[in-house]
Design goal:
The complex is a heterodimer of chains A (416) and B (224).
Chain A lengths: L1 H35 L5 H19 L1 H10 L10 H25 L5 H17 L6 H34 L4 H26 L11 H24 L5 H6 L3 H43 L10 H29 L5 H21 L5 H14 L6 E2 H33 L1
Chain B lengths: L13 H16 L1 H9 L3 H27 L5 E2 L4 H27 L9 H22 L2 H7 L4 H34 L5 H32 L2
Classes of the chains: A mainly alpha (416), B mainly alpha (224).
C-alpha cells in the first residue's frame, strides 16, 4: 500500500506539472484572439483566464477526464496487473509534459490533447498489447480532431455572416450594434450554461432536469445580456476616433461582447484541456485506492481542483508573459471578428467537453478563425502557418507515443 | 516560449497601402507650389520643392517595397492579392509622375508664356484634386475591410469613385483648353520649348488619368 502512496504522489506532481504547462503556454492560445483584438487588457485577460479556466476545469472538466482516465485503455486486459496502468499513465503524463515543454520552447505548434492521447495509446499498444487499446473510441477521438475545426469554422462563418447582415452592412451600424450585440451575448451565455448543465454537475451536488436546465440557461443568458446592455449604453460616441475609422464606436460595442466570449473561451478551454493533465492522475488514483481498474465512480472534485489550480499557477508564473507577446503580434483583429471566432470555438469545445471527447482547443480556434476569414472577415491569414498547425499532429502523436513507451519501460524497471 | 496562434494573423495591407497613397497624394499636392515658383522664376524655391517631391517619392518607394514583402503568396485575404498589388503599382505611378513633371521643368529650366500660365494652373489644380480624391477613396479601404466588402459601404466608395471619374473628366476638358491655348502661341515660341511644354501638359494630364486608374483598380476589389 505504501507503494500506492508513492504512485499517487508522483501522479499528483506530474499532473500538476502538466497543468502548469497548460496554464503557462496553452491558455495564451485560447486567449490570443481576445488579447489581439484588445477587447481586454493583458491584466484583464489574465484575470478572466484564471477565473474561467478554473471554473471550466472544475465544473465541466469531469467528462473528458473520465475519457482520458478509462476511455482509451481497455481495463479488462489489465485486470491481473493493475500496476501496469499506473506505470503507463505516469509515463504518459511525463512524456506529454516533456514533449510540450520542448515544443513550446522551440515555438512548435503542438496540441496538448494530441500529445497525451498519443502517449496513452503508445504505452498501451506497445507496453501492454495492441488489444489493450479501445480502438473504436480512439477512432472517434481522432475523427473529432478533424470534425471539430470544421464545425467551429462553419459556425464562425455563419456568425460573422449574420453580423455583416444584421449590423455592418446597414446604414446605421451603431444603432443596430447596440440593438443586436446583447442578443449575441445572450447566445453565448445561454449556450455555454446549457451545455455545462446538460453534462451534469453531480460532482458539485447539483442535479437538474432538462426543463430546469433550459430555464437556468435562459435566466443566465438574459442576465448577462442585460448586464452587457448596461455597459453598451454607457459607450459614448468618440467623434475623433470615428473620423479616422467610422466603425470605431461600433467595434467598442463588440468589445463588450468579446469580454463575454473571452470568458466562454477560457471556460471551454479549461473544461477540455484540464483532462490532459488530470485524466491520467485520476486513473492512477482510482487504481491505487481500490487496487482494481475501471470502477464506475465519478472523477472526484479534488482532482479537478488540482488541475484547475495548476493551470492558474502556470498562468500566473509564466502565462502572462506569453500573453503579452500575443497582444503585440496580432495587430489588426477587431472585436467583431474575434468574438465570432471565439463564440464558435467555445461552443464547439464545450459540446465536445460535454460528450467527453478530448479535442484540440487550438485547432478548433484556428478552424473558427479560418471560418471568419472565408467570410471575408480578416485582412490577412497566413495559410502556411495554419497548415503547419494542422500538420503538427502528424509529429505530435508519434512523439508522445514513443516518449511514453520509453518512460513506461523505465518506470517498470524502477518499480517492477 | 512563443505563441504560434498569433502567427496565423498576417499583417493587414490596409494601413501601409493608405500610407503609400498619402505619400503619393502629397507628391502631387506639392506641384502647384512648385509651378508658382517656376512661374515667377524663383528657381531656388522651385529646386527646394522638387527636392521635397523627390524625397516623398522615395518614401513612397520604400513603403511600396515594405508592403510587397509583407504580402507573401499564401495569405488568405478578403480580396485578391494581385488586385491589391495593382492598386499599389498605380498609386506608385502617381508619385513617379509628380516627380517626373517637376524633373522635366527643372532639367530644362523651362519658362511658361504668361498667357498659358492661368489655364495650365487650372489644369494642374484639378489634377491635384484627382489625387486628393483618389486618396479619399483609398482611405475608405479600412471601412471596406471592416464590413467585408459589402452593403452600404460599397455604395459610399462607389460614390467616391464616380466623383473621381468626374474630376478626371474635368481635367480632360481643361487639358484640351491648355493645348488649344498653346497651339495659338506656338508660332512665336522656340520649337524645342514648345515640344517640352506639350510634354509637361501630357504628363500633367496623365497624372489625373493615373489617379482615376487608382479608383478603377479599387473598383476591382469591390467586384465579387
Amino acid at each position: 500500500m505504501d507503494m500506492m502512496m508513492v504512485y499517487i504522489g508522483l501522479a499528483a506532481v506530474f499532473g500538476l506539472f502538466m497543468a502548469w504547462g497548460i496554464g503557462a503556454n496553452d491558455v495564451a492560445n485560447a486567449m490570443a484572439t481576445s488579447v489581439g483584438a484588445r477587447a481586454l487588457t493583458i491584466k484583464q485577460a489574465i484575470l478572466v483566464a484564471a477565473v474561467f479556466e478554473f471554473l471550466g476545469a472544475v465544473l465541466a472538466g469531469g467528462a473528458v477526464t473520465s475519457t482520458i482516465r478509462k476511455g482509451i485503455v481497455d481495463a479488462g486486459s489489465l485486470a491481473d496487473s493493475p500496476e501496469l496502468l499506473v506505470y503507463g499513465m505516469l509515463a504518459a503524463l511525463l512524456a506529454a509534459a516533456i514533449w510540450l515543454l520542448l515544443a513550446s520552447q522551440r515555438g512548435w505548434p503542438v496540441s496538448t490533447t494530441h500529445s497525451i492521447v498519443g502517449a496513452i495509446v503508445g504505452f498501451a499498444a506497445v507496453g501492454i498489447g495492441i488489444e489493450a487499446v479501445k480502438w473504436v473510441k480512439v477512432g472517434t477521438i481522432v475523427m473529432s480532431w478533424v470534425i471539430s475545426p470544421l464545425t467551429a469554422g462553419m459556425i464562425a462563418y455563419t456568425i460573422f455572416k449574420s453580423v455583416q447582415w444584421l449590423i455592418l452592412e446597414r446604414e446605421d451600424p451603431l444603432d443596430r450594434a447596440r440593438r443586436f450585440v446583447p442578443l449575441y451575448i445572450f447566445l453565448a451565455g445561454f449556450t455555454i450554461t446549457l451545455v455545462t448543465l446538460f453534462k451534469g454537475l453531480k460532482h458539485v451536488g447539483l442535479e437538474l432536469s432538462t426543463g430546469q436546465s433550459y430555464a437556468v440557461a435562459v435566466i443566465v443568458g438574459v442576465m448577462i445580456a442585460l448586464l452587457g446592455r448596461l455597459f453598451i449604453a454607457r459607450i459614448k460616441i468618440d467623434p475623433d476616433a470615428d473620423k479616422d475609422f467610422r466603425f470605431q464606436t461600433v467595434e467598442r460595442v463588440f468589445g463588450i461582447l468579446m469580454v463575454v466570449t473571452a470568458c466562454s473561451m477560457a471556460f471551454a478551454h479549461g473544461s477540455n484541456d484540464v483532462a490532459n493533465a488530470i485524466g491520467p492522475v485520476a486513473a492512477v488514483i482510482s487504481v491505487a485506492q481500490s487496487g482494481v481498474i475501471g470502477q464506475k465512480s465519478e472523477v472526484s472534485i479534488w482532482i479537478l481542483l488540482l488541475g484547475g489550480g495548476g493551470i492558474v499557477i502556470g498562468l500566473a508564473t509564466y502565462g502572462f508573459r506569453v500573453m503579452a507577446t500575443v497582444g503585440k503580434r496580432i495587430t489588426h483583429l477587431t472585436p467583431s471578428r474575434g468574438f465570432a471566432a471565439e463564440l464558435a470555438a467555445a461552443t464547439t469545445i464545450v459540446v465536445a467537453s460535454g460528450t467527453g471527447i478530448p479535442i484540440s482547443t487550438t485547432h478548433t480556434l484556428v478552424g473558427a478563425v479560418l471560418g471568419v476569414g472565408l467570410a471575408r472577415g480578416i485582412a490577412a491569414i497566413n495559410l502556411s502557418v495554419v497548415r503547419s498547425i494542422f500538420l503538427s499532429w502528424v509529429i505530435t502523436i508519434p512523439a508522445g507515443a514513443i516518449l511514453a513507451i520509453i518512460f513506461f519501460y523505465i518506470l517498470k524497471l524502477v518499480f517492477g | 516560449m512563443s505563441n504560434y496562434i498569433s502567427k496565423i494573423f498576417g499583417s493587414s495591407p490596409v494601413k501601409p497601402l493608405q500610407a503609400h497613397m498619402a505619400k503619393a497624394d502629397e507628391c502631387a499636392g506639392r506641384l502647384p507650389e512648385f509651378f508658382e515658383a517656376v512661374f515667377v522664376g524663383d528657381w531656388q524655391i522651385a529646386k527646394a520643392v522638387r527636392e521635397a517631391i523627390s524625397g516623398l517619392e522615395h518614401d513612397a518607394d520604400d513603403l511600396k517595397k515594405e508592403l510587397r514583402l509583407q504580402m507573401p503568396k499564401n495569405l488568405l485575404m478578403p480580396v485578391a492579392r494581385a488586385d491589391l498589388l495593382s492598386v499599389l503599382r498605380v498609386q506608385d505611378e502617381v508619385a513617379n509622375l509628380s516627380k517626373d513633371i517637376a524633373g522635366v521643368v527643372i532639367g530644362r529650366q523651362m519658362t511658361f508664356p504668361d498667357t498659358l500660365k492661368p489655364s495650365y494652373m487650372a489644369l494642374l489644380r484639378r489634377c491635384v484634386d484627382a489625387a486628393g480624391q483618389a486618396h479619399t477613396t483609398v482611405n475608405e479601404l479600412d471601412e471596406l475591410f471592416e464590413v467585408g466588402f459589402s452593403g452600404r459601404e460599397v455604395e459610399i466608395v462607389q460614390g467616391f469613385i464616380n466623383k473621381l471619374d468626374q474630376i478626371e473628366n474635368d481635367t480632360d476638358k481643361l487639358e484640351i483648353e491648355v493645348r488649344a491655348n498653346l497651339f495659338g502661341l506656338e508660332k512665336g515660341l522656340d520649337p524645342v520649348e514648345v515640344m517640352f511644354l506639350y510634354k509637361v501638359i501630357d504628363l500633367t494630364g496623365d497624372l489625373a488619368d493615373t489617379c482615376q486608374r487608382v479608383g478603377s483598380r479599387l473598383q476591382l476589389l469591390l467586384a465579387r
